[in-house]
Specification:
Order of helices and strands: HEEEEEEEEEE
Radius of gyration: 17 Å
Oligomer: single chain
Structural class: mainly beta
Largest sheet: 4 strands, antiparallel
CATH architecture: Sandwich
CATH class: Mainly Beta
Helix content: 10-25%
Number of helices: 1
Length: 160
């Protein structure tokens, strides 16, 4: 690929990101070659307008090494005054033929997974913690190292 083609692709990519007017917060953390069952991915959220509402998403980047149809997550949100709300979530990650769902042209797919809608953030500090809780059929213990997940992200979008 020559310099001119690279420059055109970079301009197109920047213009796509510049058009993302709903984005308030969007951050990713790498989990390396696999997501360990005891590894917690944490995000410190910025202070948000307490009068506005927001939609929240967990973003997952995975590749062909991901061998499950579903993904189970435990997401906790630490709120001011010591309140912690915990949700156990299940997301479909592959179709019936085993093809990964999500966006992407290569073997890496990005899935934007809905978490909560119309959330208000009263003043204070918020932190989101995400860990995987995938188990194999018939087994109680969780998968020690979840292969195929490369990055975990958290996104906040304005509802307006």
């Amino acid at each position: 690929m020559n310099l001119r083609t690279s420059l055109i692709l970079a301009i197109i990519a920047l213009s796509l990101f510049a058009c993302d007017k709903k984005r308030v917060f969007d951050d990713y953390k790498t989990v390396g070659g696999g997501w360990d069952k005891d590894s917690v991915v944490s995000f410190d959220l910025p202070e948000l307008d307490s009068l506005k509402t927001y939609n929240l998403f967990v973003n997952i980047r995975d590749n062909d090494k991901y061998q499950f149809n579903n993904l189970f997550l435990i997401v906790s949100m630490e709120q001011p005054k010591g309140v912690v709300k915990v949700d156990t979530l299940e997301y479909e990650m592959a179709d019936a033929e085993g093809n990964l769902l999500g966006e992407g042209f290569s073997d890496i797919k990005e899935s934007k997974l809905f978490y909560k809608e119309n959330v208000r953030f009263p003043k204070g500090k918020y932190k989101v913690n995400i860990r995987q809780a995938v188990r194999q059929n018939g087994k109680v213990a969780g998968v020690d190292k979840l292969e195929g997940i490369t990055e975990v992200g958290f996104r906040i979008e304005s509802t307006k």
